[in-house]
């Protein structure tokens, strides 16, 4: 929510010749806005990565004596992960790519997210392929577009993003 607020109230790029932008913001105000946006994106990224890397809702249930209730609960947790994990990844990826026009390192962070999705320790990718729709293919198209954008901007797709 905070990200959408910052992004929808973004100032125009600072004019090279003047101290004020087209919308009346000074360079200092724009710099403060960029800093605040960067902090909001970083906070959202950190929180989302905690969910992805800590196996959110993968709770080992005692199946020895649980019966129907344990099976039902296990299915509920599975369904929740399957619904929300791809959505979290898509939103985080889109936020990082969108904000990279202001904070260029976010493009590298978006590509780093693909490494986390593919990581065998967390198996996040399984949440994309278990559903009826092949969401993994959709995600890989987004990763491809981000990679091409990074290459067009003169970046290195193999460079590790420095975690701040």
From TrEMBL:
<keyword id="KW-0472">Membrane</keyword>
<keyword id="KW-0906">Nuclear pore complex</keyword>
<comment type="similarity">
    <text>Belongs to the nucleoporin Nup84/Nup107 family.</text>
</comment>
<comment type="subunit">
    <text>Part of the nuclear pore complex (NPC).</text>
</comment>
<keyword id="KW-0539">Nucleus</keyword>
<keyword id="KW-0509">mRNA transport</keyword>
<keyword id="KW-0811">Translocation</keyword>
<dbReference type="GO" id="GO:0017056">
    <property type="term" value="F:structural constituent of nuclear pore"/>
</dbReference>
<dbReference type="Pfam" id="PF04121">
    <property type="entry name" value="Nup84_Nup100"/>
</dbReference>
<dbReference type="GO" id="GO:0051028">
    <property type="term" value="P:mRNA transport"/>
</dbReference>
<protein>
    <recommendedName>
        <fullName>Nuclear pore complex protein</fullName>
    </recommendedName>
</protein>
<keyword id="KW-0813">Transport</keyword>
<dbReference type="InterPro" id="IPR007252">
    <property type="entry name" value="Nup84/Nup107"/>
</dbReference>
<dbReference type="GO" id="GO:0031965">
    <property type="term" value="C:nuclear membrane"/>
</dbReference>
<comment type="function">
    <text>Functions as a component of the nuclear pore complex (NPC).</text>
</comment>
<dbReference type="GO" id="GO:0005643">
    <property type="term" value="C:nuclear pore"/>
</dbReference>
<dbReference type="GO" id="GO:0015031">
    <property type="term" value="P:protein transport"/>
</dbReference>
<keyword id="KW-0653">Protein transport</keyword>
């Amino acid at each position: 929510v905070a990200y959408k607020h910052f992004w929808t109230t973004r100032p125009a790029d600072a004019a090279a010749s003047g101290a004020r932008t087209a919308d009346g913001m000074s360079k200092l105000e724009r710099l403060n806005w960029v800093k605040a946006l960067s902090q909001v994106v970083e906070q959202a990224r950190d929180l989302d990565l905690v969910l992805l890397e800590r196996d959110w809702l993968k709770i080992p249930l005692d199946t020895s004596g649980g019966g129907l209730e344990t099976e039902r609960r296990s299915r509920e947790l599975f369904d929740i992960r399957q619904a929300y994990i791809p959505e979290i990844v898509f939103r985080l990826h889109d936020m990082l790519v969108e904000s990279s026009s202001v904070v260029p390192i976010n493009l590298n962070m978006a590509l780093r997210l693909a490494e986390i999705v593919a990581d065998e320790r967390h198996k996040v990718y399984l949440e994309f392929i278990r559903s009826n729709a092949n969401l993994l293919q959709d995600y890989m198209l987004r990763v491809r577009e981000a990679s091409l954008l990074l290459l067009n901007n003169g970046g290195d797709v193999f460079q590790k993003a420095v975690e701040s």
